[in-house]
Design goal:
The chain is mostly helical and about 300 residues long. It is built from 16 helices and no strands.
């Protein structure tokens, strides 16, 4: 058996096992890994070999699970387009940033197309999700319900309004996780897939500072109970902007540690600290804004 055939067999088996795991309690651990074996299969085999191996994997899943297999196959096919996009970029040895951007956009586009198709077929996914949240809150034990905000209608509307944010985080999570593990596995087999620049070298575009400031000021004056378009946009954009600048702050701390030839204890401690003290997230985002807006690093070099 040739190397490509062996690779195809191994990753086909892994694909089947991961899809079958969706019917077990370990789905919480395996759902985020679904793209990885298919990515490996696509990169490590020929196009013909990939088609044959992938189709046979889906057939095996269907035979083993019967009608449940239709759902499992649908889930796998949903992740196929980003696999093809990212896999083609891997084969061309494209920059990691291009791979991550293309993968994220593809997943987002698929999510939006799925919502539009749902509406076209007479199914309102947003309304169904809202009804699910209402039923969930209603059936919660009273001991847990007291932990929710007093205005539960506002809470439910807020959760529904930030569905775009969920979709963005979903796409980012899946793409970054799949890229990180797949790149590590591919490089272990001699592929030489480029990685991202070191954290200390990353810098956001300065124009994002103005976007952040405008959104921050608008957020101060917009009524949070409003159902206007601007309010909905702010609900979804502010967390993303704050996250981007908080990550920028961590990059700055990595730079400080590298410039002083320290071990990366400072940025790692900052990451751990924000997990236990979430309000620090705001402080980090402001530090990230200052890092992008002002020449802090240049002044820091002069003082060394």
């Amino acid at each position: 058996m040739g190397n490509r055939s062996l690779q195809g067999l191994i990753w086909s088996v892994v694909t089947v096992v991961l899809l079958l795991s969706l019917m077990t309690p370990i789905i919480i651990f395996t759902f985020g890994l679904l793209m990885i074996p298919v990515l490996m299969l696509y990169v490590k085999t020929s196009t013909k070999g990939f088609v044959i191996s992938y189709v046979l994997s889906l057939l095996v899943v269907y035979v083993l699970t019967q009608w449940h297999g239709v759902f499992l196959i649908s889930v796998s096919l949903f992740f196929l387009p980003p696999v093809l996009v990212m896999g083609n970029l891997y084969k061309r040895k494209a920059a990691a940033r291009s791979v991550l951007t293309a993968g994220t956009i593809t997943l987002l586009a698929e999510s939006l197309v799925s919502l539009v198709m749902g509406y076209a077929l007479g199914f309102d996914p947003v309304a169904k999700f809202k009804q699910f949240m209402i039923d969930y809150v209603t059936t919660m034990p009273s001991t847990l319900r007291v932990l929710l905000p007093k205005d539960q209608d506002y809470y439910i509307n807020y959760v529904v309004n930030v569905i775009p944010l969920y979709l963005i985080f979903f796409a980012l999570f899946y793409t970054f996780l799949s890229h990180g593990i797949s790149r590590w596995l591919l490089n272990k087999t001699g592929e030489g897939i480029p990685g991202l620049r070191p954290m200390r070298e990353r810098m956001l575009q300065r124009s994002l500072v103005w976007v952040y400031l405008i959104a921050f000021v608008l957020d101060l004056f917009i009524n949070p109970n409003s159902n206007s378009l601007i309010s909905t946009i702010l609900m979804n954009s502010m967390p993303l902007l704050m996250l981007a600048f908080a990550i920028q702050a961590i990059c700055f701390l990595f730079y400080v540690a590298h410039a002083n030839k320290w071990r990366p204890i400072l940025p790692i401690a900052a990451i751990v600290l924000v997990c236990f003290m979430p309000p620090l997230f705001i402080v980090y985002s402001l530090l990230g804004v200052f890092d992008v807006a002002f020449p802090i690093r240049e002044r820091f070099k002069k003082n060394l």
